[in-house]
Fold each of these.
Amino acid sequence: MIVVSDTSPVSNLLLIGRLGLLENLYRSVIVPKSVDTEIRMLKGLGKDISEYENAVWIKVLTPKDQAKTSFFKSILDPGEAEAISLALELDCDFLLIDERIGTKVARERGLKTLGLVGVLVKAKEEKLIPHVRPILDELRSVAGFWLTDKFLDRILSEVGEL
């Protein structure tokens, strides 16, 4: 399985010490160079990123098609642009991405996308975590992950936690 990730799923799980969920679900995750750079900038903000630095299952690649990447950069941030470009080049199974516009652009190009909340739902389905709610609460309080209460209630209802 080929999984490419934008910054948000990796950085948010890293900030709460649960980056290993991605390894347990996908065995290997590919991030583009700009995503790697964004994640490493957390260190300059005083965050412990050793779990990321030691994750040999995360591969850093650079998209080859610079014209396509430049086009995406004209409408998206560099991490999203490179993640979508790389996902297309690698014909990935899933692109992990949270941002609404990036998700829309990726889906318009035929990519299957999954956000961080979807990753947590899948982790619960695979019995890697017993509950989604405590992790979402931690993401909101520790990592500053943004979710509307309405969306949170919908997800918790879907996973039988409401």
Amino acid sequence: MEKGVRMRNGDVWGQSRSGQRGFGYLLVLFALAALGLLLAGAGQVWHTAQLRENEAELLFIGNQFRLALGSYQQATPEGTPQLPLKLEELVEDRRFPVPRRHLRKLYRDPMTGKAQWGLVKAGERIIGVHSLADGRPLKFYFSDSNAVFEGAVRYDQWVFSSNTTADAPAIPVTARSSNSL
């Protein structure tokens, strides 16, 4: 005896045709698995693209700091220190009757998203900045003023210092010292 309700076309509701019960469900599961793999691959590509963009921004911002440190040094009046005590002095240099700006603003570190930078100091004075991120960079080949970064295996090894500070004593990067805003 057949279980279920007989339909007008002669089929019985609740019974499958030719043993295909669950085939559609498996097809949907495989489609979802394939879609998941595709999205995982797209996520990895997006992450790599975002990391490359952050590296390019770090290089731009670091070079802005480098230029600001050089400008601060070159604009130094006689008898005053040639290097700033704080990064804020690059934004507003009060050594003059009318304050000068060597840096438009204090930038956030694109690798950490924080407003803190590692500082490289000679005594109490800042000679360079670096990111506090210790991740592994994607970029290994550089040109021009960034050629010193070749071979660096972490972002915090990308130290941006003024080209005119080359005569300053070689001071190792201070142990993650930072300047918070």
